[in-house]
D-2-hydroxyglutarate dehydrogenase, mitochondrial (Otolemur garnettii), 541 residues
Amino acid sequence: VMAPHWVSRWPWWLFRASPGWRQTACTLRAWVEPRRWPGSFQGAGVASPLARRGCSSTSSRLPAVVLTQERCAVQRLPFSTVSEEDLAAFECIIPGRVTTDPEELEAHNVDWLRTHRGCSKVLLRPRTSQEVSHILRHCYKRNLAVNPQGGNTGMVGGSVPVFDEIILSTALMNQVVSFNSVSGILVCQAGCVLEELSRYVEEQDFIMPLDLGAKGSCHIGGNVATNAGGLRFLRYGSLHGTVLGLEVVLANGTILNCLTSLRKDNTGYDLKQLFIGSEGTLGIITAVSILCPPKPKSVNVAFLGCPGFAEVLQTFSTSKGMLGEILSAFEFMDAECMQLVGRYLHLACPVQESPFYVLIETSGSDAGHDADKLGGFLEHLLGSGLVTDGTLATDQKKIKMLWALRERITEALSLDGCVYKYDLSLPVERLYDLVTTLRAHLGPCAKHVVGYGHLGDGNLHLNVTAEAFSTSLLAALEPHVYKWTVDQQGSVSAEHGVGFKKRDVLGFSKPPEALQLMCQLKTLLDPRGILNPYKTLPSRA
Ligand SMILES: O=C(O)CC[C@@H](O)C(=O)O
Ligand SMILES: [Zn+2]
């Protein structure tokens, strides 16, 4: 068989038989820094996320974020306000860890997208579940509202107060309790940072079952509370499957110990599932037991250019068939995403410009076997015209660089202006249709209409940017985007949750009976509604 003309440009083809191919099999033109979302916000004087991303050297130079209560039609519920006596009681429970300094509170009052801002006057930093229990017991008695906060990296305004709710940060609850190196079960406190847990388990030849762009800041408790999806979902599934147990403090201070480490446990209702994805509205997660998969011995990442979305879909089907059990991620991004990461983050496109790009990761236990499979797959893609250009990375550093192109899209978008964000679950074959029609429909009203996301999970991240916020652009987007999604039997929130932002679009994805049951569960577990009020449940139930 004659080799097609592109063969000479394809490292995996050229180097497959060569012992040195692992070092050379990459055509990247410029390396990029590994992905870093906003650093942890804890501690005085920490600059805001945008400042950390190079927009400004101090948070004070950033335009102030309008208070959520001024921007949105929302009424403060009749909670008490924090008194001197309350502060004294908190000081007794967690001496030296009660903060009222407005400057220090600022970073905790604003979400990292800088679209929501509360005016909390108190930040509490417990270290133990007992302390959380004592705090909540006090708040429950006094009818004080509480906003649980992890790394504050959420996308839907769920992690910051709307009014003056007390902020209860899990930042100091950052201890690993145990790790079993036979079963791979990790038990840890809720405030452990995901990236630190990853490092910890990797030292013992395991990995965390989830990974996401915000790993450097997000807390495992927040991940579980929001049922975060992320980049490993395709392989390891949802936290509803990998979380084995939880310890939760209920609104009245009761500690619910469901922190089991069992793979199988059919002892009636699986209560922990209620708290996974409840966004801190039913209880505060204080500890997590989670199943970690073994660390794959061989990881490869291919970054490919596709001529159209039909080819992206065919590449996906082919990858499932030809890569089978070693396929561990299938992500996509469109050409506008690539332009934005190039413009704002100076990350060079490693392949020829294409209408679409896909990132395919394989993870397996036998490097030779995986390389053979991947080589055959890539040859097939190129030969059949599904892919027009590509590059392959096999070493850790280059793999990270390719992942950064995908993981840092959110960051690039936030530097482009005002961002309208949608996180939709859709049938994979319709995943990009909305982007195309919106682009035509919005015309010059939008700066960019981009589509990217976890194609392998049927999860589209549709983002629209504009110079400034405009009610007419919003009216052109909503409810159209939601109605379109529902017409495809999709979900209006695939992985980012509901928070404050999406609470009144829940009706698009859930029938009234389901919403009613959600409200009844909320009343049962938190009769005074003190836990993360104004979030997750519809404002008019
Ligand atoms: O910013 C977004 O819309 C998506 C963020 C995140 O879920 C991602 O997959 O990169
Ligand atoms: Zn995502």
Notes: The two ends are 67 Å apart (CA to CA). The longest strand covers residues 298-306. The pocket of zinc ion (ligand 2) is lined by residues 453-454, 461, 495 (CB under 6 Å).
